[in-house]
Design brief:
The protein has about 210 residues and is an alpha+beta fold. It has one domain: Alpha-Beta Complex (Inorganic Pyrophosphatase). The chain is built from three helices and ten strands. The strands form two sheets. A five-stranded mixed barrel has the order 1-4-6-9-7. The two termini are about 25 Å apart. The model has no long low-confidence stretch (mean pLDDT about 90).
């Protein structure tokens, strides 16, 4: 097992996971207790305050991204309303029985599905997963294994989390998809990453 002598960049230095796209590494940026929107600083790899949350709702679960993924043309091709990907790592929501109450951690997450969100004409998919081997949710194989109200709450959060008061929602949340489509999206995001960054990292593109 290799070990790091220094802190790797969470986006570029960590791996998506040995069993990706079924079980992936998720780097957590935000917890259900955060009223601030934190986001990875793409240069330093540290968390930066992006903005205070616009509304009163808090994230319904831990939220972050899958390392070494990139939402580019490969991800955008799945959604006809998207002209391109949003240029960020692929977002992931991780549900667990016990609360994940700190960020800047890496968790193993079992992928159950997801949905596409259109943000300014750009594909901004959200993968929905559960903590791998979770005592309550770890046996779920798709989104039907989760409470429908919880899944709806996740969709509602992302449809409103950028919305100013008394203003229409700027983002469009699309229908849910299951694990097979989620796996396709993750593979596409991994391929988009390789196409975008492999040359910079001295690696062969897939």
């Amino acid at each position: 097992m290799k070990s790091y002598r220094w802190r790797p960049h969470p986006w570029h230095g960590l791996e998506p996971g040995e069993d990706a796209p079924k079980v992936v590494n998720a780097y957590i940026e935000i917890t259900p207790f955060d009223s601030m929107k934190y986001e990875i600083d793409k240069v330093t790899g540290y968390l930066r305050i992006d903005r205070p949350q616009s509304g009163s709702s808090l994230p319904p679960c831990a939220y972050g991204f899958v390392p070494r993924t990139y939402c580019g043309d490969g991800v955008a091709k799945f959604e006809e309303d998207a002209r391109e990907g949003d240029g960020d790592p692929l977002d992931i929501c991780v549900i667990s029985e016990l609360p994940i109450n700190r960020a800047e951690i890496v968790v193993s997450a079992k992928v159950l599905g997801g949905f596409c969100m259109i943000d300014g004409g750009k594909a901004d998919d959200k993968i929905i997963a559960v903590l791998d081997n979770d005592a309550i949710w770890g046996k779920a194989t798709n989104l039907k294994g989760l409470p429908s109200d919880l899944v709806a709450r996740i969709q509602h959060y992302f449809s409103t989390y950028k919305t100013p008061y008394n203003a229409p929602a700027p983002d469009i949340v699309k229908d849910l998809y299951g694990p097979r489509q989620a796996h396709r999206v993750i593979r596409a995001a991994m391929e988009d990453y390789a196409g975008r960054y492999a040359a910079e990292n001295g690696e062969e593109s897939v």
